[in-house]
Amino acid sequence: MRLENLKLSPPINGFNAAKNLSQLFGTNPELYKREFGIPGHNALDFVWADEKRGFGTPVLAMHDGVVSQINYDVPHKTKGNGIYVFSSDGRFYTNYWHLATFEAQVGQVVKARQVIGTMGNSGNVTPKPSPECPLCGTHLHGGLFVPNHANDYGGFVDPLPYLFNGEEKLPIFFGRDMFFGKTGDDVSWLQTCLRIEGFAEDYDPIAVFGFKTLRDVSKLQKKHGISPAMGYVGKVTRSFLNGKYSAY
User: What's the CA gap between 58 and 76, in Å, rounded?
Assistant: First the structure.
């Protein structure tokens, strides 16, 4: 589905998609199917490269809204410290997990780019923090949830199309041809790009190249004059995608 007219703000200052995104939506399916019963990663992971691995970096609200929930770290749970911000219009909420500290409270009205917490490594993170590396695993898990939206991710949808500014490069590279039946992280990346392009409105990145992906690749090819527009992601289509979206 598409949330019309939604534009999210990056949850960290100085955001650069190529440098600050470590995991996109729908990736790493084996882990998430095994551990959580979902087809892949159900959010975006944000990282910050500095001497502290980003620990303590201010986390910003991605939109105007109200803090609806705060969860404190429970050992062996995936979320760690988490804060939830419900949109002002009630259409969706965003969640921010693995925080070090909270800088807002339940019921507080917040504005986009307001500091609501700090990046940390609470909860189940990889690599796990240790006495030798207490800051290991530091990152922000930022999700977008749509109430009453039935999908394979329990209502979570890909936030990236709503964060993408049209000119950014992503930490992806399409190095192989893709066609019906193919699986893998690059298929999820493809599906995210299709959503950014205005297609893929009836499914979320799921790391499986099915009939809907075939349909939408064909639409992409027609939109950009790529021939033949048969839905096969070959050398020409990969070159177009890499030129427009890849940072590598």
Answer: 25
* Count of structural domains, the chain: 2
Tens digit of each residue's pLDDT (9 = 90 or more) over 150-207:
999 999 999 999 999 888 999 999 999 999 999 999 999 999 999 999 999 999 999 9
Domain presence at residue 49: yes
Report how far residue 180's alpha carbon sits from residue 214's, in angstroms, rounded to the nearest whole number.
7
CB 216 within 8 A of CB 200: yes
Q: What is the DSSP letter of 10?
A: P
In a domain, 206, yes or no: yes
Domain span holding position 213? 185-245
Which tens digits make up the pLDDT trace of 12-68? 999 999 999 999 999 999 999 998 899 999 999 999 988 899 999 999 999 999 999
Helix axes 185-196, 235-245, angle to 10 degrees: 70
Instruction: Report if pTM > 0.85.
Output: yes
Long-range CB contacts for residues 47-53, cutoff 8 Å, separation at least 24: 47/20, 47/21, 47/22, 47/138, 47/139, 47/140, 48/12, 48/20, 48/119, 48/138, 49/19, 52/135, 52/138, 53/135, 53/136, 53/138
Q: Is residue 229 part of a domain?
A: yes
